[in-house]
Amino acid sequence: MLTGELAAAKSREALRIALGNMRQSFNYDFVSLLRIPSEQEKILGPLIHESTLPQAFLRDFDRGQMLTHCPVSIKVRRSMLPISWTVDDLKGPGSKQPVVELCDLMGRHGLSSGVIISFFLSDGHRYGLRFDGARSALTQSEINELSMLSLQALEVFGHITMSRDAQHNPLSARELEVVSWTAQGKTSVEIGQILTLSDHTVNAYLTNAIRKLDCVNRTQLVAKALRLKLIA
To answer: Using CA atoms, how far apart are residues 36 and 173, in angstroms rounded to an integer?
Structure first.
């Protein structure tokens, strides 16, 4: 059933619904689709394409630049295999303070266990599906099934993304949202308050948008976005 639903998904909304059904089928509470971060990247927000994680968690995660110290991110960069974890595993004896703070944050939001499955797509980037919640560890059979579904879901995402780019709209929905608020004269701090994001994350979205539209600053970015009718 999930395989057929993914095969029929031709839009981001249809994919979003299918990801939600995958999450429910495997008894997880949250699902995220993201680009796997490099060692140089410190902010998670701009890497996320779809997520049901609590906005407060994402805000505090980026505000503390926890991506730098996140054991899961480090493991994912080093291996193509599915990576599963529990907070108890991450918060072992002798854990450094940033890891302890991360585990405490995850615990407050009910993210006591999870798994991330990643693959390279045709654009050369590596993407992953991350599932979080409070369930027990997946069996090997469940990991195998979820891996096959994740590959299919990420391939669908790749096709949808390429189709969107072909329509000359290179900015993500969140980037467009941030640029739109910038055009209305809002500062990064104000935009962060409106969207429940850290100002670091807002600035990262703006930096990505500036790069994608080949601009040099926010003023030029807003002007070009208006000229291209990406924002109203």
So the answer is: 19
Give me the pLDDT at residue 187, please.
95
Cα dihedral angle (146, 16, 40, 218), rounded to 10 degrees?
Answer: 170
Q: Which of 84, 78, 147 is nearest to 119 (CA)?
A: 147
Residue 52 contacts residue 20 (beta carbons within 8 Å): yes
Q: Give the tens place of pLDDT for each residue, 47-64.
A: 999 999 999 999 999 999
Q: Hey, where are the domains in the chain?
A: 1-166, 173-228
- In angstroms and rounded to an integer, the radius of gyration of the C-alpha atoms of the chain is 18
231: tokens are 């924002």
Of 81, 71, 47, 73, nearest to 174 (Cα)? 47
Tell me if domain 1-166 and domain 173-228 are identical in fold.
no
Q: What is the C-alpha to C-alpha distance for residues 175 and 202, in angstroms, rounded to an integer?
A: 9
pLDDT band at 230 (very low <50, low <70, confident <90, very high): confident
Query: pLDDT-based confidence at 95, cuts 50/70/90?
Result: confident
Q: Which fold has domain 1-166?
A: Beta-Lactamase (3.30.450)
CB of 113 within 8 A of CB of 119?
Answer: no
- What's the CATH fold of domain 173-228? Arc Repressor Mutant, subunit A (1.10.10)
- 15: closest CA among 106, 127, 179, 175? 127
- Is pLDDT of 26 > 90? yes
